[in-house]
Amino acid sequence: MQEQESIKAQDERFMREALQLAEQGAALGEVPVGAVLVQDGDIIGRGFNSPISLNDPSAHAEVQAIRDAAAHLQNYRLPDTTLYVTLEPCHMCAGLIVHARIARVVFAANEPRAGAAASQGCFFSQSFLNHRVEISSGVLAQESAQMLKAFFKARREAKTTAL
Questions:
Q1: Residue 23 is a catalytic residue
Q2: 142-154: per-residue pLDDT in tens?
């Protein structure tokens, strides 16, 4: 019981870090999604959505955090790591997570349109995969969902004001 409580506290602590990164992305006009990659209790990679500012459709928060961690460790494999992300990963990011051999993914809010962990199929449980990823969801989901709703509301309002 005590071990589960400490895991929950750790998950919330690192998800708060990811939420801070999402806020940084939102300040740049990016969809507010943030991610951190953790190994042995230390953050080894950070990222937030950057496809607009980098002119790179693959620059999702997860990709940015994984690239950061791989450069930090000087290794394209990231075993025994946990990825914390504020929004359910898409299929592109799910494939990258498997290829990087990430052990666990913790995400906050579901992504009903494109989520690959639960919402639009359970990619990580496919039998053809040669690596299994543990999935946890709902950690600070309300905070993440609220940030996303506020971002898109402001974007819609800016469009109607511009007309």
A1: no
A2: 999 999 999 999 9
161 — pLDDT class (breaks 50, 70, 90): confident
**Residue 55: CA atoms inside 13 Å, Cβ hemisphere, count?**
0
Catalytic residue, from 62, 88, 143, 157: name it: 62
CB contact at 8 A, 88 and 100: no
Structure-token match 């914390």, residue found: 84
Q: Are 114 and 92 in contact (CB under 8 A)?
A: no
CA dist., res. 97 & res. 43, Å (int):
16
> Is the distance from CB of 79 to CB of 103 less than 8 angstroms?
yes
Q: What percent of the chain has pLDDT over 90?
A: 88
Assessment of whether the complete model's pTM goes beyond 0.90? yes
Instruction: List b or e across 97-122, with b for residues whose CB sees 16 or more CB atoms inside 10 angstroms.
Output: bbebbbbbbbbbbbbeeebbbbbbee
CA distances from 19 to 32, 71, 122 (A): 8, 22, 24
Nearest to 82 by CA among 158, 156, 13, 27: 13
